[in-house]
Give the backbone structure.
Amino acid sequence: MTLRRLLMLCCLMAVLVPGACKDKTPAPGGDDPTGAKPTSNELPPLEVKDDTANLLLTWIDDKGDFHVAQKVADVPEASRTEVRVVSTTREEGTGKLVYVADLSKKQPDGAYPVKVIARTEWDEKGASRRKARLEALAPPPTGSAPAAPSGSGSAGPGPAPTAPKVAANKVVAIVYGAEWCKPCHDAAAYLKQRGVTVVEKDVDADDAAQAEMQKKLERVKMPGASIPVIDVMGQILVGFSPRALEKAVESARNAKTL
C-alpha cells in the first residue's frame, strides 16, 4: 500500500469514527454541524462498476446486520438492490448523505445506478429489519390467561398457564460498535454462536448509545478505548478477543447458577 493511499484511509477512518475529529467545519457530504437538513445535490456523482477500485460496499442481510465487502461480486445477490458505497479516495458520502447503489441492475455502460439518501434513512433500513427479527423472536406476553372457549359450560376458570421461564444460564451481551466495524460484527457473531443474546448498538449513528458506552468505559477507567466495546453482564471488554469473550461468558453463566 502506497503512503498516499494509507493517508487517505486514515482520513476516511477519522471521518467515520465518532469523536475522532473535533473540527466543526462543515465536511463534504452534507455533514453540517449546524443541523441544516442536507439535500441530495450536495454530493457529486459517483460511478460504480465491477472493476471500480477503492470501494467499501455495505450490504444488509435479512436479520438487519451490516456486512462490508470490497467487490461487487462479494455482495450476495439477494442483498444487492440497496448497497451503501464509500470510496476510500474521497470523503463525500461519509457524512449526513450517503451513496446507495443498486448492484442488481447493470446499465449498458457497465455502471450501476447510484442514488443519494440521508444517512438516517440508510441506518433505518437495518434498524427496521432488526426490529422485525426481534419481534418475531420475542416470547408471547405473560400474565394473562387465554380466553375460555365460548359455550364451554365450565364452572370457573381453569389453572392459568405457566409463564415461560428464562433459562438460568442465559447471558446477555451488548456490543457497542458501528456498521463499518468488522471486528464488531465478528464479536456479535461469535457471541451468538455460543447462545448469548446479543444487543448491537451503533455508536456512530446513535448519540445515546455512544454516551452509554463512554459512561461504562469511564467506570472501568478506560475512557479512550476503541470499538468494539462489549458488556457481558457487567464485564466490560474492549476489542474482539475470542478467548476473553469465552471467559467472560462462562463467568457470567457460572454467576447466574450460584
